[in-house]
Amino acid sequence: MSSLEQILTAQRRLAGVALCTPLLHSPLLDGLAGRRILVKAESLQLTGAFKFRGAWSALTGMDERARRNGVLAYSSGNHGQAVALAARMHGIPAVIVMPAHAPAPKIDGARALGAEVVLYDHATESREEIGVRLGRERGLALVRPYDDPLVIAGQGTVGLEIAEQARRAGVASADVLVPCGGGGLAAGVSLALADRAPGLRPRPCEPEAFDDTRRSLAQGRRVANGGSQHSICDAIVTPIPGELTFPILRDHCGPGLVASDRACLQAMAVAFQRLRLVLEPGGAVALAAALSRPECIPGDTVIVVASGGNVDARLFCEAVHGLR
Amino acid sequence: MSSLEQILTAQRRLAGVALCTPLLHSPLLDGLAGRRILVKAESLQLTGAFKFRGAWSALTGMDERARRNGVLAYSSGNHGQAVALAARMHGIPAVIVMPAHAPAPKIDGARALGAEVVLYDHATESREEIGVRLGRERGLALVRPYDDPLVIAGQGTVGLEIAEQARRAGVASADVLVPCGGGGLAAGVSLALADRAPGLRPRPCEPEAFDDTRRSLAQGRRVANGGSQHSICDAIVTPIPGELTFPILRDHCGPGLVASDRACLQAMAVAFQRLRLVLEPGGAVALAAALSRPECIPGDTVIVVASGGNVDARLFCEAVHGLR
Fold first, then answer.
1. Which residue in B167, B276, B323 has the most chain A C-beta atoms within 10 A of its own C-beta, making it the best mutation to test that interface?
2. Can you tell me the distance from the alpha carbon of A71 to that of A59, in angstroms, rounded to the nearest whole number?
3. What is the distance between the alpha carbons of residues A27 and A25, in angstroms, rounded to a whole number?
4. What digits encode the pLDDT tens for the residues A49-79?
5. Chain B, 30-59: which have a CB under 8 Å from a chain A CB?
6. Which domains does chain A have, with CATH numbers?
7. Verdict on whether the full-model pTM lies above 0.90
8. d(CA B324, CA A281)
9. Beta carbons of B48 and B308 less than 8 angstroms apart
10. Is this complex's ipTM strictly greater than 0.85?
11. Helix crossing, A4-14 with A184-196: angle to 10°?
């Protein structure tokens, strides 16, 4: 069970370690959107994504004996880098099981942070099987990417910060658009906002072809994505909402939103030009939804979480290419 | 005369208007540099550069009657956008005199913010003459880019924030590398640090071919740059240190540092990859100096100001092209 108390504990553990990321805005972005857009820039977090919060929360919250041989994570990249850094800061080894097709900066980043990266073929191998074997052989503690109360609590500190920053900005009522893969960030933010800023309504945002959370919320039960889709939003292409995260989303979230890959690239270009932020496609999906689906969002202010910025230079430049 | 009291006044006027920008760091950047690098990300400031602080300070500090017909600025771009926004927020017109070869995002940005942009030919026309004529004809108040106590005071708020953020990070002693054109930012930061964090030593950073401040500091008097040089650091290629700024720099700064254009491009790539920041060449010059001249910097920690991020997509992608 995840609770506000756990989020507050995570916040105390993260104080002085993680960055309280700024809530940015841009008059020209507001003009483009026709309403005020406030952007929570988690791409500026350590390792370039909100994931460090959950990883740090999990490692500091687990029994010292459980983690003494090191930790293990499955990850498309951002969670892996986060666990790698948190492990290094704890002085313990980290093994990250990543798909061979993960973006090079994410693989390189985890290695540069001292982790052992085990690549697997997404089509023919099971990361769970590789992980279970490695974990057993070496006595490693698994740090799940989202279905872990400590991880959800860490991500929830984003919500505590949004609640406080929105209050200071005079925003009592607005939708809060949150990129959503397994739902750890959206769940944590939802719990925090429900307690601290009930006028702020969390809404998960997903790539069009991976809208399992949107459909699950609409149906009131966990439904999966089809298996044959593709999206450039590598960070958030999960198969089905989490077992622990979905009940939280169901209780607290507004309807899900989707954005096309093309809209994500355009949002990356807008973030480059108007906010001077580097976002990755999955990290830009909430901004993309805000810009491409304005008719689905009420009010004169919307808050979007920009959740990550680990993108290779080629794809980034493809996104900003349309700009002069 | 500029004073700490003026900076504190500017800080009060900027509260809730400008962003308190974060002091970022990256474990992988630290590894690359061989010391801890703390990056004050003023590229995230409104209009993408620290300049908004000075412009807001000047407009709010000037007599209401002086500004009622509007304001005028000469600018290579960042000061112009800042004055345009500050004027719009005051509900008064702004005229910005900009070189025709200024980066398109800076010209477009000022126009999009509602300013009238008057372009001039850098080779054949005098921006001062154009400005004096326009100012007289229309009764516009000139907002100087750096030689104005109110502007220096506004930029000095960056120094107040650095002092506080360094204290929280446990840094009592370090060099603070500051991009330097006319010297408004360096002067303001110097005054603030001298009072609030005397263990932090400000050092102006310039492009190799425009090191007038470094040479002026070495000689104890204002000396000019040669006229035939070029640099991609468009934001900070001024002819000579300011009349008001130089005495402040002389009293408070350590030796100046320089970086090549190539080092600035490399620093932009590093900022993209390790900090997920979009920096323009002139905004990256302090980071470039930290990375390319480590032997000139003492200590295990260095603070660098990343002063701006208004760069066109083509040049930015040229900078990050070397990355995978």
1. B276
2. 8
3. 7
4. 999 999 999 999 999 998 999 999 988 789 9
5. 31, 41, 43-44, 46, 48
6. 4-50+148-320 (3.40.50.1100), 52-142 (3.40.50.1100)
7. yes
8. 17
9. yes
10. yes
11. 100
